[in-house]
Design brief:
Layout lengths: L5 H6 L1 H4 L3 H6 L1 H11 L8 E6 L2 E4 L8 E5 L5 E8 L2 H18 L4 E4 L11 E8 L8 E8 L6 E8 L1
Antiparallel strand pairs: 1-2, 2-3, 3-4, 4-8, 5-6, 6-7, 7-8
Helix pairs in contact: 4-5
């Protein structure tokens, strides 16, 4: 687990920089490519298949502990970052949420704090962005969650279609 979120936030500078022009020039194309690849199961991001429909991703977001792809009835790309404290995970989730929201202007936004994650853990900080127009049916989720009876937490970004 990471000792803090500062290193991860610096590594994710394209997503967490406050300047819209910098985010547009660096982090937004990555998010847009993931969204565009979602209907076809992220073919450009797929690495080696390690289980039926599960692939390593050849795209890693800096500092992530894991990035993988699931192809099937629902296509999923995700990356996850581990932390020793919920406050560190919440800080990165908030910064990442803000940056992704800036990249996907016009998408429908819903706060997901208090809901259950795909891991069936309670989301501490999070949002779901739902695509509109040609991106309808695609969702981007960013959330932090804490493991029960532990300070260990993680931040996850998911692109689903």
């Amino acid at each position: 687990m990471k000792a803090g979120w500062v290193a991860a936030a610096l590594a994710l500078a394209p997503f967490t920089m406050g300047q819209a022009a910098h985010a547009q020039a660096s982090g937004c194309p990555l998010i847009h490519n993931l969204v565009a690849g979602a209907p076809a199961g992220f073919p450009e991001q797929r690495g080696e298949e390690w289980d039926n429909g599960w692939f390593d991703s050849n795209l890693y977001m800096t500092g992530a502990d894991d990035c993988s792809i699931k192809v099937g009835s629902e296509n999923l790309f995700y990356c996850a970052w581990g932390f020793d404290a919920p406050s560190d995970a919440n800080s990165l989730a908030t910064a990442l949420s803000d940056a992704v929201t800036g990249c996907l202007a016009g998408w429908t936004r819903a706060d997901t704090a208090g809901r259950k994650s795909s891991n069936n853990l309670t989301i501490l900080t999070g949002l779901t962005l739902s695509g509109v127009g040609r991106d309808a049916g695609t969702t981007v989720l960013v959330f932090s969650e804490s493991f029960e009876d532990s300070q260990e937490s993680q931040v996850t970004i998911e692109v689903r279609r």
